[in-house]
Design brief:
Blueprint (H helix, E strand, L loop, with lengths): L11 E5 L2 H10 L11 H13 L5 E5 L4 H18 L7
Parallel strand pairs: 1-2
Length: 91
């Protein structure tokens, strides 16, 4: 997906999380109200937009998993792209 203003990325990670879990995480981790960008209706629209994206360079990561599992999936996802650049990571 080449655009007029930016080249196609080598890799795009989308951290996929259902809206209710996202809201629960936001509200349980702080003592204030969600800002206007964090309101349910906005999160639903943003999730729908990301869900509609279908490009070869997109890898979706299940963000509902525990942090260690998410991290491992990120490493596994970026390893091939980094390898093309001569960067090696140990899994």
């Amino acid at each position: 997906m080449m655009t007029r203003f930016a080249p196609t990325p080598d890799l795009t990670l989308i951290f996929d999380l259902d809206v209710e879990t996202a809201i629960r995480r936001m509200t349980s981790s702080r003592n204030d109200e969600p800002n206007r960008l964090e309101l349910r209706e906005n999160l639903v629209a943003v999730k729908a937009a990301f869900d509609a994206m279908v490009y070869a360079e997109i890898v979706r990561i299940d963000a509902s998993l525990d942090p260690d599992s998410v991290f491992k999936k990120v490493l596994t996802s970026v390893q091939p792209t980094l390898g093309l650049r001569g960067i090696k990571i140990d899994l």
